[in-house]
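Quarterly update from the structural biology core.
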Amino acid sequence: MSTDIRSDIEGMKAEVQRIGFIFAMRAEGQGLIDRLGLTEQGRLDPDLPACWVSGRVEGGSSGRDLEVAIVFAGEDPYHGCDRIGTLPATMAAYLLCRRFRPDLLVNAGTCGGFQREGASIGAVYVGGGDFLFHDRRIPLPEFEAFGIGRIPAIVDEPMRMALGAESGIISTGDSFAPTAEEQSFFERERVTCKEMEAASLASLSRDLGVHFLAVKAVTDLVDHPEPEASAFARNLNRVSQILVERLINLLEWMKVRE
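Predicted structure, tokenized:
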């Protein structure tokens, strides 16, 4: 993995041979595992529940093969649910990067969207502008900017078109339901997607010198009268299927030789 992070990703496609995907929830990524026929590899660390799968995506006569791995933070043994949020995602991604050595790390998953920024249920976005943290409020001069993050998102236009995604600002936090202060932050920063991993993983990728992409599909609308939790539960499976189709499109595009 290069430690030199380029100011753009022109020509990145030719560099990428190993792609790592990280999903917060097994339900979001199982469809991609099934479509690609990847093999379970077990835990990444014997003391942590983070688990991964891997395999080769054949390029065929006109393409090139890709090595693909998918990681999940795993099920929490104390609460019986997926370990969602920034800390489990960052730990799992770090372990994957050390074990698998991806050229590109893709944080794929679902998110809450904002109608005022044009989002709708099932819409797919790739992180653009800056990745932000909306719940790291540190009112100290030397730490305030660090808390917000503003980690540049580098979007390759042909890649975005291959995904069939729009570009939008993604903001990350560790709570599902936003506070009034966070709602003001979303409006002020013109946030399109609210979720629980991307900015943290963008920061890790920057430290490791790994190309990073966040792809998010909208399950619920934050600025809509229906409670987010009920919309999320109702739409999770359908929207996850949409997301998988877009990720397949990305892999098909990546396989084609320049």
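Helices lie at 12-15, 26-36, 86-100, 144-148, 157-163, 180-189, 198-208, 228-255.
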